[in-house]
Design a protein that fits this description.
By secondary structure, this protein is of the alpha/beta class. The protein has 11 helices and 10 strands.
């Protein structure tokens, strides 16, 4: 299989749509000033959150700054958002490689695409936003040290979504001991990332936010739950699952505590379960709305 990270980001749109905590989202939309807004999204990938907020009927007028450190993501975002906007019925204007305008009689969204490490972007001292979005990002960063610089990007609210919180479940069980060991080592690999990271980021954010003096306005679970319906997966979620298994393979291949043959067989059977429409995947995560 061809593993494309941008394809994975597209495939997980429907998974995230279900997962995002609606009471937290509704509190966010109710707490912001009247649009137009300035929004900064860090670790923004290919722009699927922007598209979601338009699809969900909330985002209509904004300057939206989309920041990601991967050149491939930013290039893909420019093309994909243009195609998505046109297919949605919006007019699209492109200004070079890094600016878009999505508009119609009820929408006026100006998009700036910034290829930068998030902390380099912060050091550039951009104008603060009404809303900071960090989607599936904080569990990859050193915490709580990253929170004050991140919060300097907003003058109002931060919406911090899909923060992993220490539970991965794959069903049906293949072997209780092997499954548990693989899940334990997979979580431990998250804690050992050189760039920072925390496999229990969700629960730890409560104390981290308090430590930096942020006001927690709302919090709730945002679990990924992917399962077959009548023997097949909705949308492109079979690809999403195969990419999750690819993450396992990348993280644990050659691990000294895993038998290589047993792990290889485990991966092969999990992949076959996806092909047969049998695998159920659950990951526990948390959403937060914060006033820094």
């Amino acid at each position: 299989m061809d593993y494309s990270f941008q394809h994975y980001l597209l495939a997980k749109q429907s998974v995230d749509d279900r997962a995002l905590n609606r009471p937290v989202y509704e509190q966010m939309t109710a707490s912001l000033p009247v649009q137009p807004l300035r929004i900064i999204e860090v670790g923004a990938g290919i722009g699927t959150m922007l598209a979601r907020l338009v699809r969900w009927g909330w985002l209509k007028q904004a300057d939206y700054v989309l920041v990601d450190e991967m050149t491939e993501n930013i290039a893909y975002a420019a093309d994909w958002l243009s195609r998505w906007g046109t297919e949605t019925g919006l007019s699209v204007e492109r200004d070079g490689a890094d600016r878009l305008r999505l508009f119609d009689p009820s929408h006026e969204i100006r998009v700036s695409l910034v290829r930068a490490d998030v902390f380099d972007f912060i050091r550039s001292q951009p104008a603060p936003a009404d809303l900071l979005i960090a989607h599936a990002v904080l569990d990859l960063l050193p915490l709580p040290a990253s929170l004050p610089p991140l919060f300097s990007l907003t003058k109002n609210l931060a919406w911090l979504t899909v923060n992993f919180d220490g539970l991965t479940s794959l069903e049906p069980i293949l072997g209780p001991e092997l499954d548990s060991e693989i899940e334990r080592l997979y979580h431990r690999s998250m804690d050992a990332r050189p760039s920072g990271g925390d496999s229990q980021c969700g629960r730890h954010l409560f104390s981290h936010l308090r430590a930096v003096g942020a006001d927690l306005l709302s919090a709730g679970a945002s679990d990924w739950v992917v399962h077959p319906v009548n023997g097949s997966y909705p949308a492109d979620e079979a690809y999403f699952l195969q990419f999750i298994l690819h993450f396992f393979e990348e993280s644990l291949s050659g691990h000294p505590e895993l038998d290589p043959a047993a792990f290889s067989a485990w991966l092969a059977e999990r992949r076959a379960q996806v092909e047969r429409g049998e695998l159920v995947y659950i990951a526990h995560q948390m959403d937060f709305l914060v006033q820094p």
